[in-house]
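Reopening this one. Same input as before:
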Amino acid sequence: MLKPVPMPLNFRTKVNKGELCTWQIEEPEDWFSERLQLEQAELNELAQIKGKRRLEWLACRWLTHQILCDLKLSNEFHRVPVLKDEFGKPHLKDVPFDVSFSHSHGQVAVLLQPVACGVDIQYFVPKIKRIAHKFLSVREAESLDAPLLLEHLHFYWSVKEAVYKAYGRKELEFREHIIVEPFACKDS
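Same output, byte for byte:
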């Protein structure tokens, strides 16, 4: 039985006609395994995942189930499976919503939308500076704000990652194909 339970939600908001939620993972892997009734395709996918990624994978599916229960698209007796297409993009079986997942340092994010969507959460780390040349266009690089460089780089990365996930295919090159209009980065 998949009874919805209270969870450590960090953030939840309506986005257009969908939902965006982030959640801090506090449960061990077996907590999810005992509660999720996975389809064989999902079990096969999970078997290929190692380490902390398994916990993130399970947490994303559990959070998705909780959101779908709140939207009355799932219930404690039936969990909507999350299956991958030929490009590796997750899809909800027989539900009119697109889904996107992200995870970073013990947090997961789930975005559900009636149209193609993508979400990305990031833990700010200085090493992003070393790879900025791989994902920023010349114009984007010229727009960086030195005092808020780390924040600016992570915002650019997250926007591009979300677009890549929404597109759902492997042919996009961040630097060449996903161009973000330069923006001011403000300290908050």
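So the earlier flakiness isn't reproducible anymore. For the record, The beta strands are 9-15, 18-24, 82-84, 90-92, 98-104, 107-113.
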